[in-house]
Amino acid sequence: MARRKTAVHQRPETKRSRPNTPSDELWMEDALRCAQRALEAGEVPVGAVVVCQGRIVSRGWNRNITDSDPTAHAEIVALRQAGATVGNHRLGDCELFATIEPCSMCAGALVHARIKRLVYGADDPKAGAVHSVMQVLNHPQLNHKIEVQGGVLAGRSAELLQVFFRNRR
Ligand SMILES: [Zn+2]
Predict the structure, then answer these.
(1) Which of these, 35, 46, 66, 146, has the minimum number of CB atoms within 10 Å of its CB?
(2) pLDDT in tens, 79-135
(3) What are the φ/ψ torsions at residue 108 (nearest 5 degrees)?
């Protein structure tokens, strides 16, 4: 997610490829805990976990300020660690759960990782690169197709961001 001043809100037209499953919400709970860690560190509260064959192989949260790293979004941090844990730069058996719709950088990384499925919480109308601002995932000219499920625990994901931006004013 990009840094910005305005709050993210859930849009009712979020596309759902299939209904939320209880386990999606369970993994998203973990991603939300990661986002909370970012909030406590003064970072934009976005969290992500990578799940491979039913278990979490990595967790990430925004670390841009902490690491002085413009690329340290939650999804990138989680993908890097997942690759190291699994021992492969291709994560074709893995799903990534992110609290907010990924930006273009993170969506590009998901394609490079060959992630099987993306589950996210709230849409990001300012920078979302799944469908909100542009479509990097499942772009017609890219071969890799990713199953996408949006809107999982979206209200709570957006709420964390709202708390963050409210406190900064
Ligand atoms: Zn990002």
Answers:
(1) 66
(2) 999 999 999 999 999 999 999 999 999 999 999 999 999 999 999 999 999 999 999
(3) -60, -40
The DSSP string of 46-84 is -EEEEEETTEEEEEEE--HHHHT-TT--HHHHHHHHHHH
Kindly state the average pLDDT of the residues 149-169.
93
Distance CA 121, CA 68 (A): 26
Q: Residue 99: enclosing H or E segment and its boundaries?
A: strand 94-100
Catalytic residue numbers, as ranges: 75
The packing angle between helices 22-40 and 74-86, to 10°, is 110
CB atoms within 10 A of CB 155: 11
Cα(22) to ligand 1 centroid in Å equals: 26
- Cα of 55 vs centre of ligand 1, distance in Å, is 23
Residue corresponding to tokens 């849409």:
123
CA 161 distance to own-chain centroid:
13
- Conformation bin of residue 8: beta by default, left when phi > 0, alpha when psi is -120 to 50: beta
Q: Which residue has the tokens 């001043």?
A: 5
How many whole angstroms from 47 Cα to the centroid of ligand 1?
Answer: 10
